[in-house]
Automatic annotation (TrEMBL):
PROSITE patterns: LD_TPASE, PROKAR_LIPOPROTEIN. It holds the Pfam family YkuD. Residues 81-218 form the L,D-TPase catalytic domain. This is L,D-transpeptidase. The keyword Cytoplasm does not apply.
Length: 226
């Protein structure tokens, strides 16, 4: 090999190798940085020690920010004080004054098990008992059959610290608005039909609405008629 060619080869080799290493570094998988939750929301969803049973802090790293509780613009023909559940958007709105509403993130029922229409909050319960429906016990007797007499309230109760019981024309719909410890489920369709909120959110909503509150549950963009 001529002397000049050997020199060019030696000088070029490191550049070639460096290029390969750079390419591998660029294609290596990089884990996304953990979500940074603003202090305001950390305090909003902090643990509650003044409850009958302890309420753990919500793990907001498992919840998309759009599902954190916040006041938003919400033009609607519904009267202030109405609860509007938008199952497609995974949001619950408590209608306020001047086109505003308090918005909460929710988990909703699986396909075929959702409630749709207009109901009323017949009554409210703090730290309620939970009893599976007859359909649930029939579908999965091994899991639910022993709970026919109900489950005591507490941190592991599926209804969480609060529940709003929805009736239509005076008849129990068997659907509830309630809390959950499964923070990851907010924004998803996972439950057996009920509308679930983060525990801090159901406590907040519970304090704002009386029995008799109108509840509109939407499966599409239009509000159902009474």
């Amino acid at each position: 090999m001529p002397e000049l060619s050997r020199r060019l080869f030696v000088l070029s080799a490191p550049v070639f190798l460096a290029g390969c290493m750079s390419s591998r570094q660029q294609t290596a998988s990089v884990k996304p940085a953990p979500r940074v939750v603003p202090q305001y929301f950390q305090e909003m969803y902090a643990a509650k020690t003044d409850e009958l049973y302890p309420v753990a802090a919500a793990d907001l790293t498992k919840v998309e920010p759009e599902f954190y509780r916040q006041e938003v613009d919400y033009p609607t023909t519904e009267m202030p004080g109405t609860i509007v559940v938008d199952t497609q958007a995974r949001h619950l709105f408590l209608v306020g004054e001047n086109g505003r509403a308090m918005r909460y993130g929710i988990g909703v029922g699986k396909a075929g098990l959702e409630f749709q229409g207009v109901a009323r909050v017949q009554y409210k319960r703090e730290w309620p008992r939970w009893t599976p429906t007859q359909d649930m016990m029939a579908r999965d007797p091994e899991r639910y059959g022993h709970l026919s007499g109900g489950m005591e309230p507490g941190p592991t109760n599926p209804l969480g610290p609060r529940a709003l019981y929805l009736f239509k024309d005076g008849v129990d719909t068997l659907y509830r608005i309630h809390g959950t410890t499964e923070d990851w489920s907010i924004g998803r369709a996972v439950s057996s039909g009920c509308i679930r909120l983060l525990n801090a959110d159901i406590i907040d909503l519970y304090s704002r609405v009386p029995a008799g509150t109108r509840v509109v549950v939407l499966q599409g963009p239009e509000s159902p008629l009474v």
